[in-house]
Amino acid sequence: MIIRDDSCTGCRICFPYCPVAAIKDVADRGVARIDLDECVECGVCLRSGVCPTDSFEQNELSWPRSLRAAFSNPVSVHGSTAIPGRGTEEMKTNDVTDEYRVGMVGMGVELGRPGVATGLSEVEQVSVALAELGVTFARNNPVTYLMTDTDTGTLQTEVLGERVLSAIVEFTAPSRMIGEILSALTSIADTLGTVFSLEIITRVGSDGEVSNIDEVIGLQYRIAPNAKVNAGLGRRPVKAGESR
Amino acid sequence: MTHTLHRHGAAEDLQDDYTVICMAAAGYNVAGSGPGLKRFLTVALEHDAINFGDIMTGSPFNAEPQDIINSIKDGSIVHAVFAAKEKLVAFLRAIKDEDLGLSVVVQGVCSQVEDALSQIGQQPHTINTSLGIWGRSERLADHNTLRITTMCGHALVSKNLVAHLVKGIRAGRIGVKSAAEELAAQCVCGVFNPNRAERILREMVESK
Question: Do A233 and B122 count as a contact with CB atoms less than 8 A apart?
Answer without folding.
Answer: yes
